[in-house]
Design brief:
The chain has four helices and no strands. With 76 residues, the protein is mainly α. It has one domain. 3% of the residues are buried.
Length: 76
């Protein structure tokens, strides 16, 4: 079952909120402001069963991966 982001998922795997540790002027925030991920649920819906435990919101997974890619790229 495809999950949808709610206020509780922000801390699902972390003991802190990423929004609180990412500076306001960080490039990831600029990218998030212009990147439209509204298509994700529609495109991935066929790959999620209708029953069972909800997954982490795929938009959240992509957003967190995006921040990891930037961090890894800037460290190289």
């Amino acid at each position: 079952m495809m999950g949808r982001l709610n206020h509780d998922q922000g801390q699902l795997f972390y003991s802190f909120h990423l929004d609180e540790v990412v500076p306001d002027d960080h490039l990831v925030r600029e990218i998030a402001a212009i990147l439209d991920l509204s298509w994700v649920h529609r495109e991935l819906a066929a790959y999620y069963p209708k029953m069972g435990r909800p997954s982490i919101d795929p938009e959240l997974m992509i957003a967190r991966s995006r921040s990891t890619w930037h961090t890894a790229g800037s460290a190289a």
